[in-house]
Amino acid sequence: MRPYRAQVLLNWLFMACLVSADLGIPRMLQRVIDEGIRAGDGRLILRSSIVMVGLILVSAASTVGATTMAVRVSQSVGADLRRSLFSRALSLSASNLDKWSTGQLITRSTSDVQQVTQFVFFTGRMFLRVPLVAVGSMTMMALTDWRLSAVMLFILPASLAIFFWYAGRAQPFFLGVQRGLDRLNTIFQENVAGARVVKAFVRASREEERFDGVNAELTERSVRVGRFLAVLMPMLTFLVNLGIVAVIGGGGYLAARGRLSAGEIVAFINYLLWMLMALSHLGSMVSFISASDASAERIFEVIDEEPAVVDADGAARLSEPEGRVTLDKASFAYDSREHEPVLRDIDLDVEPGQTVAILGTTGSGKSTLVGLIPRQYDVQGGVVAVDGHDVRGLTLESLRLAIATVPQDTVLFSGTIRDNIRFGKPDAGDDEVIAAAQAAQAHGFVSALPDGYDSVLGQRGVNLSGGQRQRLAIARALLVKPSVLILDDSTSAVDVETETALQDALAEYCAGRSTVLVAQRVSSVLGADRIIVLERGRVAASGTHRELLETCAAYREIYDTQLGGASGAEVRA
20-34, 389-403, 527-541 — which one is most confidently predicted on average? Predict the structure, then answer.
């Protein structure tokens, strides 16, 4: 709230005016009863009535001002939190993001932020008003009659004790509700994204059961919170009503003996009712305090997360990159679990203009290996270097500007095809966009669309085939003209004929650039200058296609299984 301290101070000013006006009305009522009605002074009654109308107008105007400031500050804080969450999520490394599912991050940026926003709003509306009303009412009651005000010496401490007891124990309940909402959003997001798979396997009813189970658990947690807080308000109301009974009894006794006037009793009861209102707001704030406390903890768990991959002190900028990539004894384990390494002692050299292919079975570490080059993860052992510079000593921005990656899982954004292709170079002209699309073998199907490059894509490109999405992703990478192009099994959904044409086009378009190609199909790697065979995180063999056929049994087995021993020329034909 610090950036909005001017609005906060203005809100406090409005609130002070509001409380002062509200607390002035009972005093005027006392005057009307004791000095106006009893004495038959019509002028005093009229003047007092006009003053009360003025106080009511001040109260109304102050309420509007305080509410306006509270809304402005709370919504601004909510926007700042969403911006901070989004910015932090984009700045975090892959290893950081592995801690949370998409559903969890969505819950934090929506429901949790909303909880904190409501807390800030009620801070501006009620949290200041409650102590002001309580202190003001106590002061006015003491000024009216100190004997009757002694009743509050029991009611107020008892009410505060109950409040803090509930506030201290409600937070875990709300934390459980938000975690249940995490699971609900995760299941919902998974099933919306994977709706085709769910239908294809006729699992809709099973997924509905799974959702119903989590939904029922969330409902039960919410009911448990409501049940826990259900007793709070009646307890506070009981205490204040007990005070009212004591005031009426004690006040009546004093009035009967001429020690207290009727106006003073009316004023005292009004101040007690203001106290009741303050305490009732105090009770309702328990839920806001506890819920926002739990939500803030979850929000700052993300915001306070430090990226695992950051620029080192004095990091150098990679200028005029040539595209030479070197891995020297590189080792890596997820979560730094040294006893379960994914990659072990990897040696790899890619010279500028070379195409190096990485082949291996599923789980052999291919995608992890190429992820080390742009520092999606950092190695735990050995060195990854670009142009002779350890990537950990380069700025992330300059390193990643020199490298373009087409990931295994194609990601397209909502918008036009043109905007998706020039995602990495927003100022690219139409000629550049078309040239990149032609090299990626995407120009043909894009031109056939009714709106061509202005065609709007559905979410994640759902209105395109898998092969079409992959070709657009390749075009997006080619447009930035990287020094190092990484293709992580990015032609798996492309037919062999199109893949062959794509390889020929890439050889021409990427002349002079380094290309690291990850593939499952032998036909995708035949034209590579060198092929690396990975087995269980280690380099099993390295060489050209012909050399590996003669020296590597694992490669020969893959080749025979996929291509039945056909020659390279036959495969290309």
Answer: 389-403
Ramachandran region, residue 543 (left: φ > 0; alpha: ψ -120 to 50; beta: rest): left
Q: Tell me: the pLDDT tens digits for 475-523?
A: 999 998 889 999 888 877 677 778 778 888 887 877 778 899 888 778 7
DSSP three-state, residue 120: helix
Domain boundaries, the chain: 2-173+229-303, 322-402+531-573
State the burial class of residue 116 (Cβ atoms within 10 Å of its Cβ: 0-12, 13-18, 19+).
Answer: buried
What's residue 75's pLDDT?
A: 92
Q: Which token pair is 54?
A: 């003025």
Domain 322-402+531-573 sits in CATH at 3.40.50.300
Domains 2-173+229-303 and 322-402+531-573 share a fold: no
Per DSSP, helices labelled H in 415-512 are 417-421, 430-439, 443-448, 466-479, 496-509
Contact indicator for 485, 323 with CB cutoff of 8 Å: no
pLDDT of residue 336: 61
Model confidence, pTM: 0.73
List, in order, residues 6 or more apart from 108 with CB less than 8 Å away.
85, 295, 298, 299, 302
- Distance (Å, rounded) from C-alpha 67 to C-alpha 65? 6
Is the domain covering 2-173+229-303 a CATH 1.20.1560.10 domain? yes
